[in-house]
Amino acid sequence: MVRSILLFVLLPAFIYAQSTLPKDPQCVCTVNVSPANDCVRTCDSGVSATSVKNSEIIALQTQMQELQRELTTMTTGFGLPARMKQCSKRGMNDGKENGEIMACDFVKQRDDTVLHVAWNGDLRLIHTGSRGASCRRWFFTLNGSECSDPYTIDMQLHNNQPSMNIHRPSYVEGFCRGLSAGNVHVRWNVGDCVNQNPSYNPGDSYTGWISTVRIFVEEVNVKDATENIV
Ligand SMILES: *[C@@H]1O[C@H](CO)[C@@H](O)[C@H](O)[C@H]1NC(C)=O
Fold first, then answer.
1. Name one Pfam family in it (predicted).
2. SS percent in the chain: helix, strand, coil, step 5
3. Ligand 1 test: best mutation among 109, 140, 149, 184, most atoms within 8 Å of CB?
């Protein structure tokens, strides 16, 4: 009785269940075709049959690997391939000799990137006062401190001619390491020159006469930012 149930009920049911399962979807190499060693693979998923040459599969795999490599190169150290911000102002006309000139906040996405900053616009310094010359320094601060890895990002203007009022275009640029992820307060400032006292007067400085000034900020993948300190 048990044996006949096994034979006439369970076995046919098992065979029937097997036949309803999808056939092995793995491709089987069946026909050798030209070029030599290439072959047509037939795939039968139980619905339709397809055939693809080995060489086509290999070419696709190679393409995918290349794309993967490119994507990894683009995105390593980044959430996105590139992030840049520009803050600009027209007709700034800022006559101050000390303090903040311009602000540009930037949200750094990662700890392991460098921050590339640049400022451009025009500056002037007229010599005033009793000492032999005047000097002013324009410099970036990043979250309240100047860059120390590798160096400050700054410039100095020296003038010993009281009558000279030349507005010069200027461009200051560099990248800074060691800033953690988060909001970075990027500031362009003016103040004393290095070794200001007692040699120099502050003079009469001016930033951004009529024209446009701008700060650029960019987060750069460290492996795209190598540096030689000379
Ligand atoms: C910059 O300072 C702000 C606070 O003013 C802080 O929230 C932020 O995390 C700092 N950014 C970095 C990169 O340390």
1. CTHRC1_C
2. 20, 45, 35
3. 184
